[in-house]
Amino acid sequence: MTITDDLQKLLDILPQDLRQILEKHSQRDSLVEVVLDLGRRPEARFPHQAEYLSDKPVTQEQIDDCIQRVGTFGGDNRAGIEQTLHRISAIRNRNGKIIGLTCRVGRAVFGTIGMIRDLVETGRSILMLGRPGVGKTTALREIARVLADELNKRVVIIDTSNEIAGDGDVPHPAIGKSRRMQVAHPELQHQVMIEAVENHMPEVIVIDEIGTELEALAARTIAERGVQLVGTAHGNQIENLIKNPTLSDLVGGIQAVTLGDEEARRRGSQKTVLERKAPPTFEIAVEMMERQRWVVHESVADTVDSLLRGRQPTPQVRTVDENGKVNITRQLTAINGRSHSLGAEESVVPARQANGWRASGQMVPLPPVTPEREKLSGRSEFDRLLNESLDYTDSFDFADTRHSGPNGEDLPLHVYPYGVSRSQLEQVIQVLNLPVVLTKDIDSADAILALRSHVKNHAKLRQMARARQVPIHMIKSSTIPQITRGLRRLLNIDEPEITDDRELQLFLHSASDDEIDALEEARLAVENIVIPKGQPVELLPRSPQVRKMQHELVEHYRLKSHSFGEEPNRRLRIYPA
């Protein structure tokens, strides 16, 4: 990497005694910013520490002297030094007088986007996220240069605070052949964004700090016109944008949707859920955790959908070693902030912590959310749903290799079946190799798996379960798909996207060639046509017994199927969801 910072020009605006101290400082080249506050000691900040430059407090004369050596302060209380990337931000008192300065060092770092260069070249819109000072603007500047100089694209930078291309009318060489549009007032940034598209025919728009609803709408307008958008926004992670009503449109927007009874049952969720409103403005998101460690979401739409359904996204983690080599791993990110990186061939099933709540008597019901309580807490139904989706309360412990049950019990899980075929249960447990033991004693059970119709008509079972604090998990019917789904739910195991050969064995009766061929035919139809293309498919005529197996397999995918035609040509028709 090559770094250009013109540091001496920033030091020249400081009081002479402070300038001399910094010029001789051992960490001069890594200086981040200098803070001057009236009546306080001047402070120099470095990447990992801060130190005072003098024991004498800063005077108003010193602040006024610095102000005279920099450019004009705009509506955002920022100024710059011509032909440099440095930024001077002002703190004013109630009368508008400047009583504090933050003098930040601006650096052009060539080669800083090596980690995501392949994504930049795809032409898709990219959103950079990260805390202040992590290098978002530096990366933005380098992306603009690479797109303009090396990929020969027409790039226009919307430079609201003159921070990307420096102060003055002539832009800094760090942006290459990119063109820069200045913004007279910060609140007009969205208008300049639209003006750039309408007047200057860009292929790429670069924008720093999207922070208002109007700017988010302007960004969507630009993206809908086929222009590649590269920008930054306030927030460390995508979850921050989802919870931010002002900026949520950048990731597609969030809306509450009421599902039909059948769809709610199919999803296994409540009837009112949160869903993404529209395609995201930015197709790729990069969370800049550290300067040499970025988390990449290659599909923002998939990440947002996963988060809203309480699932874990699996983004890429890109790091750079001392030799400049980019390493890419996968990350299982727990919603509560803990994470675990996976190599290309490593896979981990997260296990819940074995808290043993039932055994220790710590399992207590949550207090019901009454309308009065919800009103007092100031939370709307929409906010409640959003928090339920994002605030994952399960604790994943990757250091502990023990698996545990839904209430913290160590596996194998002891299940008491009620109204469910024991032979089918044993078949599912054996074929899928699930850590479940069936028990005939409800006192030794960790959970009850029961038919919904039986539980409704058996008050005594509900009373016994409540007295023993044993959760009841209900399934609609005693079929292989329902039993498989119920056991997976008990063990907190996600359903696989693709049915493997082991699961096909569950639906076989005699394992004859005709049965195997029929199930394979149904599986290929569902996975290659019905689900990806949304088209119905008719299968070959089969015997009633084989058709029953095909119906069960289709139910396993949560799809509908009907038999039609006359024997011996009666056959299955599978419908998309």
From TrEMBL:
List keywords of the entry alphabetically. ATP-binding, Nucleotide-binding
Read off the CDD domains from this record.
AAA (cd00009), R3H_AAA (cd02645)
Among PANTHER family, the record links this protein to: KINASE-RELATED, P-LOOP CONTAINING NUCLEOSIDE TRIPHOSPHATE HYDROLASES SUPERFAMILY PROTEIN
Signal peptide positions are none
Q: A single GO molecular function, which one?
A: ATP binding
Organism (species): Chlorogloeopsis fritschii PCC 6912
Cross-referenced PROSITE patterns = R3H
For whether the record's keyword set contains ATP-binding, the answer is: yes
Q: Enumerate the Pfam families for this protein.
A: PTPase (PF25516), R3H (PF01424), Spore_III_AA (PF19568)
InterPro entries (alphabetical): AAA+_ATPase, P-loop_NTPase, PTPase_dom, R3H_AAA, R3H_dom, R3H_dom_sf, Spore_III_AA_AAA+_ATPase
Please identify the protein, giving its name as recorded: R3H domain-containing protein
Q: Which residue ranges run through the membrane? A: none
User: In the UniProt record, does the keyword ATP-binding occur?
Assistant: yes
Q: Where is the R3H domain?
A: 513-577
